[in-house]
Design brief:
The complex is a heterodimer. Helices cover about 55% and strands about 0% of the residues of chain A. Chain A contains 12 helices and 1 strand, in the order ααααβαααααααα. The two termini of chain A are about 30 Å apart. Chain B has a 6-stranded antiparallel sheet, sandwiched between helices. A 5-stranded antiparallel sheet of chain B has the order 10-11-12-13-16, with helices on one face. A 4-stranded antiparallel sheet of chain B has the order 15-14-17-18. By secondary structure, chain B is an alpha+beta fold. The radius of gyration of chain B is 26 Å and the shape is globular. The termini of chain B are far apart. Helices cover about 25% and strands about 30% of the residues of chain B. Chain B has helices at about 10-20, 25-30, 35-45, 45-50, 75-90, 190-205, 240-255, 255-285, and strands at about 1-5, 100, 120-130, 135-140, 150-155, 165-175, 180-185, 220-225, 230, 290-295, 310-315, 320-325, 330-335, 340-350, 350-360, 365-370, 375-380, 385-390. Classes of the chains: A mainly alpha, B alpha+beta. Strand 1 (about 100-105) of chain A pairs antiparallel with strand 1 (about 1-5) of chain B, so a sheet runs across the interface.
Amino acid sequence: MVDLIRYDAELTDLWQRRSDLDESEWHKLYALVWKILISFRPSELAGLPDEREEYVQAFFERKVFRLDAAADGRGVHSTALREYYRRFLRDRLDEIKHERTMFIASDGEEEGGCCGMADAADGGADTPLHELADAGLALADVVARTDAWLARMEAWVTPYLALHYCADVETSEPLVHLAQRLGVASYHHKAKKLGFVWSPKQADSGASFGRDTLLGRFVEKDLGIPVTAKNSSLVLSAFKILCHQALLRSDQMELAL
Amino acid sequence: MKTHFYLSPSIEAIEQRLFGVSDSLIEMVERGEVSNQIATAVRNAPEWQHRQPANQGDLSDELAPTEAPAMPSHLADLVRRRVAAQQATPTQPPQAGQIIQVTKIATPRKGQLDWVLQAPLHVLLDAPAETPELWHGWLMSSEASYASWWDLVLQEEDGDVEPEAAMVQVWNPVRLYLPMASRVVGRISMARLQAVRALAGEFATAEAPDTIPAWPGKVASRTTLDALEVTTGSPLRSDSDPRWRYQHLYAYASKAITEPARLALLESAAVTTPSIGERLRTWVAQQTTVLLAPRLAQPMSGAPDLSSMPDLVWEGRARVRVIDLSDGVTTVTVTALAASTIVCRVKQGGVVLVKTTALPSEEARLSWDQASDIELVLDDGVQQLAIPLVG
């Protein structure tokens, strides 16, 4: 039996100051919560599909980092923390019961939108191949440069692209779990830096991203395609390859974990 | 064709966080810190039945605790952003552009609103409202995957901001009663506030373009009509879009902010009502075609005592009665005299809030929420009369 009482003083202190902790204190609280919960094996874990480490991590993010207004300024002890964790696991069990894949009718508008990549993963890559070949770009070379670019990016970029911008494919469903592990949803504050722009029609805007963005530099510097209205079709073809590779790479990341 | 999309967290988790029975609420009930009505509701919830420890059937004896691995990078990033936001915002509220965290309900008089806030709410301050204790602003939220065309998603170049306040719901404007402000958790620049205002202005006057399809989960940049860059989600389209439910949840959650403000406004209006009469008397004294007239008795009207507020008579054209009702809505009646047809408009800062027409010898009624800078404009087709009702 783990002696929980020895954690209580530090836990209570950090917990009740959650609104004002500094960075090192947050890391201390994370380590403390981990120690208290990782050794705890409530029966609810048996009905859940993932490893217990992931639930401890998710609990920290959703119940410790995200503040509870009604608990503002109050402390907690280790035994109570474990009960919070148990209730959290019960909520996860309920969520799994209600979890459903969400679909939305797109009314044939998939060519519009922010990036026009809806059909990128349909396997119908003939048009991009022709476009790129006509411009003197070999497919193998574009794929290699795309892979190299994705490999250079931070870990969130590939699943973020795959899930939010290359959707529309059944195969993206397993990526949900990868996205949860990587906290992909918390990276929307970097969307502008990545570079997508809402545009009614790809062809009207020349390109659906800003030039001075990660994607803009990828197209111009890594692929050597100037971002101009004249090249909009070529840029879209390059995007389709990027989308395809992001999905493939995400699948591999998911399998590797 | 159907498009698959992934939104995180799930809408059920969001609803649970905003309105479910949290661990802290259960403890508040156990400590007797909530009203009987809330306590009864909590005791009837499944969470209350589950509150007792269920040690029976746990998987096995405990394992030896292991050292924690390094915090995952996305979580470390959230921590860094929160701490940076705290360090960057030492100023006291209220100031335009500040992001205010609200953790507790406060009302002008104790117990006016029986509500326990489960999750902190956040408000971006825009400008002072009718009284020193009220500010205009917009509700903010953390779930940027649910961003619509009218949600501005803050970007890292906008400065250090609490991650729980990731986007501004310009479709969800609020008045904040300042005693509810718990702490300042971020601040955006005046330039970015201008972009929020521009987007809010477009929301009030324009529709999302038909040319952009609904694409839940995607966030991208665009420019407002004033050429200010904003990052938003896509428009809402079909009924199956979960962002409708998301907006419904936050529209309801915002009542925890707007209701105390409404109560405060009501208190303020009650204090200042006599000054409306004074203002009108001063104004009438400067007019040549408007007179004050004793209020005609209306024994069955059910209206409050209005004896201190005389009617205004626009000679030969209309009779105007100003009524302050106790629920915070101001009502004016306009009776067209003789053969006059009177078009009546209530304007705030030049913008028409309400418009109606009083036919000859008939009464028209106009109502609006208490607000500042209100004038009633009467038009008989030949002349106009602008009456400054509220300064």
